[in-house]
Task: inverse folding
């Protein structure tokens, strides 16, 4: 994943430096691969708005996302793309 | 003696910044000799290849015991010290060689080579000083003795002062406020003044061991009683109190720069910068041309000359993706050049990211890439490993029993952020045996067994087990967790607190956010995902509410509106208005605001990035305000 100038700006408007400094690109690359495999072609948008979720370990992220998929059903990718607030389900423990 | 002119000539000859070299140290003029300085610089720069910036920080090496320098270099090159660490504390080269050897052997035998590499300056301290600190038997991490001994050597403190502190009532009553740094940097009178003050009683969250180590009650009182503190409480943390003074703070907060670029100012900017440096950065061409490279961190920690050197370099032109604000904050053009022109960079480009450039150096990278471990376990080596680890720590981990027994717990993250001592402590713990599901490679990478133990044995863990995941263990500590769970806010809005909140947010930020006008006005749009980002939301929410209010959509905004950036929301508002499309559909905000930008592009051909360029938020917002 390559962030352009605008992406960088959005990231810094949305998150504090402490959180940004915790970015682990390798972990995030694995999460991106997983999201792309699941049809989330807008994974970068999720990253720029929900960085805190991308700081979860890959396993934990996948566990939460699988639960999220079950909750939303087969159209999960389209539903989430149309309404990002649905991601709230991933915050439920 | 050496004159200013002659010293300047030498600085030109060796590309040394004259101002930086003499800054805070005039002794060089009294005791320095032209020929000796010339010879020493030639040796340091041309033979040892030491970066001029390191010499600028330690001019004493050019005139103190220069005959010892080559003997000490020879010794250090033949022992287990990483010479790269020596470069950042060159004064140790002026130490008496016999004493330096004695200290090296003592510290190596009693603290290990890691302690020397972490704190190489200790080699300049004589063994007697270290032993006298050890005799105090202070209840701190053992390596803290070395830090205190170094402070005594540097005359920041005395043995008697340290004794007074550890025998004080304050030390017994507030052990959490005393770390080796506090003991090494402060004195008993300042500590007592702080702990017995009204300010300490009224704002306990602003006082940490760092505040005690670096500040005094007079400065603290001036800050806390100021108008700036009243008007911008979110800019004041224990770090601000520890490192800033009221005059610098006032100069910053009352500046045009602060008004025009509020997002660049955080407590850290106040703590570590001053208006002169900030002004120089913000008025620079580099800031105008590459605004995305400038963050509050850049303002707080970078130097405009270093930034200029980086941005005007060939490397920056050829590899722009390797340069982020982080690179500007943590690196310099010489180190970057060494990395980019290396054989390793050509052979393994995927291992080099902006993170590698920001946090590593070519010597450490070379050691890692040429190792057997790298050949045998290539999947464990990523750009993060290169950025944050070194071959010694990696070797210790890969040759361990734990690595053989639990390979799934070892990832590039573990190698990058942990060390074998901490890993062993975790894996051999009772907690690991009892709650294996709470331990992942992330826990090993980021947590310490003492913190894990405190969390697992807490009442909070027993009462709210669902709030504790491997992420909580990896990224939080019991004090922060306790502060959250015992807070009024937790009692009132339990549904807003999830394991992510515990892992990522602090109660002080959550409280500020919940006490804000915005939260009071529309509490229902502050969901768990918003609260987990409390720290950034304190700054962002007022901007978004103001924006919504300006366009009469305040009653309709949703959590998605809060999640997007002000720039994105402003661009969408402007686009819809330009197309004469209502921002509100029925009783709801237009669905575009809830969509992922890429979905907007795919489904409706609306490129939000282009819109952001067409409708830049800052400029137009200010113009409209001025017009109103």
Result:
């Amino acid at each position: 994943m390559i962030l352009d100038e605008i992406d960088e700006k959005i990231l810094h408007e949305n998150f504090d430096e402490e959180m940004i400094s915790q970015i682990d690109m390798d972990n995030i690359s694995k999460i991106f691969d997983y999201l792309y495999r699941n049809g989330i072609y807008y994974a970068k948008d999720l990253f720029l708005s929900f960085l805190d979720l991308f700081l979860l370990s890959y396993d934990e992220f996948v566990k939460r996302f699988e639960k999220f998929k079950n909750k939303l059903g087969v159209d999960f990718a389209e539903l989430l793309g149309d309404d990002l607030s649905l991601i709230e389900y991933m915050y439920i423990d | 003696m050496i004159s200013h002119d002659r010293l300047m000539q030498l600085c030109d000859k060796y590309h040394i910044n004259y101002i930086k070299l003499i800054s805070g140290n005039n002794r060089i003029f009294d005791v320095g000799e032209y020929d000796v300085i010339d010879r020493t610089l030639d040796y340091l720069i041309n033979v040892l290849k030491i970066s001029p910036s390191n010499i600028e920080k330690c001019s004493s090496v050019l005139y103190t015991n220069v005959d010892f320098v080559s003997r000490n270099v020879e010794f250090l090159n033949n022992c287990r010290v990483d010479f790269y660490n020596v470069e950042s504390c060159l004064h140790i080269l002026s130490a008496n060689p016999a004493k330096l050897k004695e200290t090296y052997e003592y510290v190596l035998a009693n603290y290990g080579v890691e302690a020397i590499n972490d704190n190489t300056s200790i080699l300049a301290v004589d063994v007697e000083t270290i032993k006298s600190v050890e005799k105090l038997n202070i209840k701190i991490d053992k390596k803290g003795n070395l830090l205190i001994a170094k402070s005594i050597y540097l005359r920041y403190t005395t043995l008697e002062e340290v004794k007074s502190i550890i025998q004080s009532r304050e030390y017994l009553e507030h052990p959490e406020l005393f770390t080796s740094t506090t003991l090494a940097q402060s004195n008993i009178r300042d500590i007592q003044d702080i702990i017995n003050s009204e300010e300490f009683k009224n704002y306990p969250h602003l006082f940490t061991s760092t505040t005690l180590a670096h500040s005094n009650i007079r400065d603290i009182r001036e800050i806390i009683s100021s108008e700036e503190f009243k008007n911008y409480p979110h800019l004041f943390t224990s770090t601000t109190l520890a490192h800033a003074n009221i005059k610098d703070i006032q100069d910053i907060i009352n500046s045009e720069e602060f008004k025009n670029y509020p997002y660049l100012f955080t407590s850290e900017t106040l703590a570590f910068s001053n208006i002169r440096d900030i002004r120089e950065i913000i008025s620079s061409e580099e800031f105008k041309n590459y605004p995305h490279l400038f963050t509050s961190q850049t303002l707080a920690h970078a130097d405009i000359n270093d930034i200029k050197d980086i941005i005007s370099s060939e490397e920056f032109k050829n590899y722009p993706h390797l340069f982020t604000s982080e690179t500007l904050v943590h690196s310099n053009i010489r180190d970057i050049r060494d990395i980019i022109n290396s054989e390793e960079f050509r052979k393994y480009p995927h291992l080099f990211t902006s993170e590698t450039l920001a946090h590593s150096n070519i010597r450490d990278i070379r050691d890692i890439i040429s190792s057997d471990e790298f050949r045998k376990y290539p999947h464990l080596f990523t750009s993060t490993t290169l950025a944050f680890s070194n071959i010694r720590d990696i070797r210790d981990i890969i040759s361990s029993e734990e690595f053989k027994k639990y390979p799934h717990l070892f990832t590039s993250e573990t190698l990058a952020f942990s060390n074998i001592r901490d890993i062993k402590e975790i894996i051999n713990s009772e907690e690991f045996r009892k709650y294996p599901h709470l331990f992942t490679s992330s826990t090993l990478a980021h947590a310490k067994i003492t913190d894990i133990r405190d969390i697992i044995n807490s009442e909070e863990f027993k009462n709210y087990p669902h709030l504790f995941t491997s992420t909580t263990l990896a990224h939080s500590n019991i004090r922060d967790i306790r502060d959250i769970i015992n807070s009024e806010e937790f009692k009132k809005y339990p549904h807003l607190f999830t394991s992510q909140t515990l892992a990522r947010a602090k109660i002080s930020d959550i409280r500020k956010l919940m006490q804000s006008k915005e939260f009071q006005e529309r509490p229902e749009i502050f969901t768990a995902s918003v609260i987990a980002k409390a720290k950034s939301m304190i700054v962002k929410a007022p901007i978004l509410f103001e924006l919504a209010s300006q366009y009469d959509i305040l009653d309709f905004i949703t959590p998605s509106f809060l999640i997007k950036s002000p720039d994105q929301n402003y661009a969408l508002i402007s686009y819809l208005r330009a197309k004469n499309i209502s921002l509100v559909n029925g009783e709801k905000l237009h669905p575009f605001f809830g969509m992922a930008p890429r979905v907007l592009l795919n489904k409706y051909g609306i490129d939000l990035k282009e819109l952001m360029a067409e409708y830049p938020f800052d400029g137009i917002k200010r113009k409209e305000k001025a017009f109103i």
